[in-house]
From TrEMBL:
<dbReference type="InterPro" id="IPR012337">
    <property type="entry name" value="RNaseH-like_sf"/>
</dbReference>
<dbReference type="Pfam" id="PF05699">
    <property type="entry name" value="Dimer_Tnp_hAT"/>
</dbReference>
<protein>
    <submittedName>
        <fullName>Zinc finger MYM-type protein 1-like</fullName>
    </submittedName>
</protein>
<dbReference type="InterPro" id="IPR008906">
    <property type="entry name" value="HATC_C_dom"/>
</dbReference>
<feature type="domain" description="HAT C-terminal dimerisation">
    <location>
        <begin position="100"/>
        <end position="177"/>
    </location>
</feature>
């Protein structure tokens, strides 16, 4: 009823009331986006939750194998189902024997264990699964930052910019912290060596 009256009597709305109405629209949009992301990330987390120390120590081998099968079906291009199943059967016990406070270890702790003891060849699918899980949030954030940066880089004054130049400027802008730490002398020297034309004279 308040909205109906507001539409008919919009000329009677004060600036404060109109500002409050606009704020509510923005807040509704933010809440909707947060809820959608929470649902999406919760679904991803439930797929990978068996790779934490707590789940590995508390879950049975059969349950871990079932989770591994489901995950390998979701990521068919990256994970081999048969290899992942056989890895889960032994990794549960080997990781527990090699780590202190195994039950409280996070996926990144387990991945560091795999690299520390050079177990990547023995458990390749497990390492790939954990890396996939740990990089998903980063991938999402990078995509969102890319769209925000592209609006700033390719404006109406740069409408004729080519794809390669746009891509390079976008990478520099997105990864500006890395760009600030680059030694340009080394980059220039490498560029000069690549472009150098050397002719052997007899």
């Amino acid at each position: 009823m308040a909205l109906y009256e507001g539409e008919n009597d919009s000329h009677l709305l004060t600036a404060e009331t109109e500002f409050g109405s606009q704020c509510k629209l923005v807040f509704d949009s933010i809440i909707t986006q947060i809820e959608w992301r929470l649902v999406a990330m919760s679904a991803v987390s439930s797929d990978f939750d068996f790779l934490s120390g707590h789940s590995l120590s508390k879950s049975s081998v059969d349950k871990l194998k079932k989770k591994a099968v489901n995950l390998s079906q979701t990521y068919k291009a990256d994970l081999d189902s048969s290899d992942f199943l056989s890895e889960m059967a032994s990794f549960k016990y080997q990781a527990a024997a090699m780590m202190d406070n195994f039950e409280k270890s996070s996926p990144i702790d387990i991945l560091q264990l795999i690299h520390k003891y050079s177990l990547t060849d023995a458990y390749p699918s497990t390492a790939i699964a954990i890396r996939t899980f740990l990089t998903i949030p980063v991938t999402v954030a990078t995509c969102e930052r890319s769209f925000s940066k592209l609006k700033l880089i390719k404006n109406y004054m740069r409408s004729t910019m080519g794809q390669e130049r746009l891509f390079s400027l976008a990478i520099i802008s997105i990864e500006n912290e890395v760009a600030h730490n680059i030694d340009f002398d080394d980059v220039i020297s490498e560029f000069v060596l690549r472009k150098a034309r050397k002719v052997t004279l007899n």
